[in-house]
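Hi R.,

Here are the chain sequences for the assembly we discussed:
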Amino acid sequence: MKAIAVLADGNEPVVIEKPRPEPAAGEALVRTLRVGVDGTDHEVIAGGHGDTPADDDHIVLGHEAVGVVEDPNDTPFEAGDVVVPTVRRPPNGANEYFARGEPDMAPDGEYHERGIVGAHGFMAEYFTSPAEFLVEIPPSLAEWGFLVEPASITEKAVENAFASRSAFHWEPESALVLGNGALGLLTLAMLDPTFERTYCLGRRERPDPTVDVIESLGATYVNSNETGVPSVPDAHEPMDLVFEATGHAPHAFESIEALAPNGVSALLGVSGDRTLELDAGRLHRELVLHNKALVGNVNSRYEHFEAAADSLAGLSRAFLSDLVTGVHALDAFEAAFVDDDTTIKTAVEFDTYEKR
Amino acid sequence: MKAIAVLADGNEPVVIEKPRPEPAAGEALVRTLRVGVDGTDHEVIAGGHGDTPADDDHIVLGHEAVGVVEDPNDTPFEAGDVVVPTVRRPPNGANEYFARGEPDMAPDGEYHERGIVGAHGFMAEYFTSPAEFLVEIPPSLAEWGFLVEPASITEKAVENAFASRSAFHWEPESALVLGNGALGLLTLAMLDPTFERTYCLGRRERPDPTVDVIESLGATYVNSNETGVPSVPDAHEPMDLVFEATGHAPHAFESIEALAPNGVSALLGVSGDRTLELDAGRLHRELVLHNKALVGNVNSRYEHFEAAADSLAGLSRAFLSDLVTGVHALDAFEAAFVDDDTTIKTAVEFDTYEKR
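And here is the predicted structure of the full complex:
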């Protein structure tokens, strides 16, 4: 079968030929439909993040997948079930985090991530997975199922943000998403039912397709070239929730100033090293005197995938069509890895649900 | 009656004569037993924090009080009940935060703080308070009741820290208190039943009475002159909980590096302005990739006072005696405001419970 991989000494995705995997006991064989591309894939390609599986000279890319069960292999699935695989796997048999269904809380060394760290991803015509790591979704979502994984990260981050505010009465009304990339826009749409007023900050000038998506959601676009994060309360309003989806280190700390009293910043973007001069005293005081919080989040777990599928089912098809700017067949896969100003979200299509 | 106040144009506590207050409808009259002194009092005295009540030329000090109901005045209390007053009061009748019993979550302008901001404190022979702001405690705690208010702040901070970790399985074992002042030591003692291993960081060299208290609790003293906050994991172990009780801005952000994966820093100390150069990128990444959180906290509410009284009842009298280094009569009140290396916690005694 064909797979899209990066060679250990390479720096671009290439199609390789691999044997079709045989499901082991407890595993199902899945025929891949679509696999999304995100910033992490670009980092893996560039060699800045992740590891090739031990004893292999390449890593198959892709951690945002949707597929159809081809061979249930005595697992609880039936052939034809539409499934989304979770990403983390235990590196040395089980460990306590996987045993209690919280692989997302496992520390370094206690997980592999398929397509990222130490395990092959899902960008192949078929993949196998233990049944416990496959989340069934409705066939009506088959087309958009590759968005379940990124949406699951948002589910986790929002869950933790609300949990951090659960010891008091909190009725948030305003939310600001930092970042108008695919995850930012997806999050903005997911927050819409919960918040009265939503905002999304980016650095693009109009006309821009992401600004159009933001406004089609009824949200307000905040151009960071005109309004920095600390100025958001004056320019708009203080925010009950900030969702940091850029990985830009200043944003994580400046978000404290964008928050309303008792607000919380959910941090998701991953930053590189960056030294900054900050008025740490003022930020510290703001956190304390106004009961604010910063909550970091990585990865997600089974329940978040289930919640994400529910959330996706509630999003308008018009929004999803605007968000996904390209679904590219395997023989034109390079197009899925192009990241320009007209690209929001792309996927590689290996097969279609309707076909068989 | 006599009261200890700071004049609007003064910078030291003085004894003044005031009329004994008459309880209004819904208020009880309380005979004051003891009132604790803390850093906030010193800031109020120095003029760096708080406001004199409108239309008055002085503010009566004191927000950590315990007293005995002298005149229930048709409230649910009985004469002789031992009570601790909460600190915040609604400035203009009620508001939503007070209505739902969460004055600690009220933003600026929506509260006065007795003895601190806009309202007289409890350092007087008598005070009145609406019954809803008086928390009854057992007579056996009368002597130590002035510690209920500071302990209530710890209850709130720990509650919010645990809440922030409530969306996943969290079994914390290690806790580090930053600061060996009275609140730090009190918190250390309160955390002891919940944590397997506790640590307290300060900058004192031995021999020092706070180090003796730390070690008498079975905790480990971390001398910050030898081990900075970021070095704590290497020198000791990564911490599941950090409790910041110094208001030293570097600590708030360095605490991220002292945390174990999935850990949380509870922030309580209030910092002045202070510009710092931080590796914000690394701190941001740490928060995200290891699911860490920073949770700020100010003040506390009725339930936290109740929980604090329960916690205090469980602390050894030996510890409390070590913590409280001075209880000074009204005619020697100046001694309660001395803050030297042998002072941990002081109080002014207006009367004794046993006397009548």
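The mean pLDDT of chain A is 96. DSSP finds ten helices and 20 strands in chain A.

Let me know if anything looks off.

Best,
T.
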